Amino acid sequence: MWAAARFSPSLASARANEIPARQAVEAFLYKARTGVPWSKVPPEFGTPTSLQTRYHRWYTIGVWQQVMDLLRVRISRTVASSP
User: Fold this and answer.
1) How far apart are CA 74 and CA 19, in angstroms?
2) Cα dist. 27→36, 69, 78 in Å?
3) Phi, psi of 30 (to 5 degrees)
4) Taking the model in full, what pTM does it have?
5) pLDDT per residue over 15-28, tens digit each?
6) Is residue 79 pLDDT above 50, yes or no?
7) What whole-number distance in Å separates Cα of residue 40 and Cα of residue 61?
8) What's the CA gap between 55 and 77, in Å, rounded?
9) Buried-state track 31-65, b at ≥16 Cβ within 10 A, e below 16
10) What is the pLDDT of residues 36-54, one digit of tens each?
11) Mean pLDDT across the chain, nearest whole number?
């Protein structure tokens, strides 16, 4: 799935000092898995403010909806091709 999302203009970093999109996604997945607040996400993922800002910006421009739509299509294809 990452290969499909990699070329999405929505995922491009808007600023030169912004963390890479893949690193941000890994941070979001960590937060979702553990349930920790932004302030407790490990610093190697980026600062809490930058992660929270990126998450909300992607939400606002519809990135998460695109991700869910892509997953639904892939799951549907997998189910349809299963015997």
Assistant:
1) 28
2) 11, 21, 28
3) -60, -45
4) 0.73
5) 656 788 889 999 99
6) yes
7) 26
8) 28
9) beeeeeeeeebeeebbebebbbbbbeebeeeebee
10) 999 999 999 999 999 999 9
11) 84
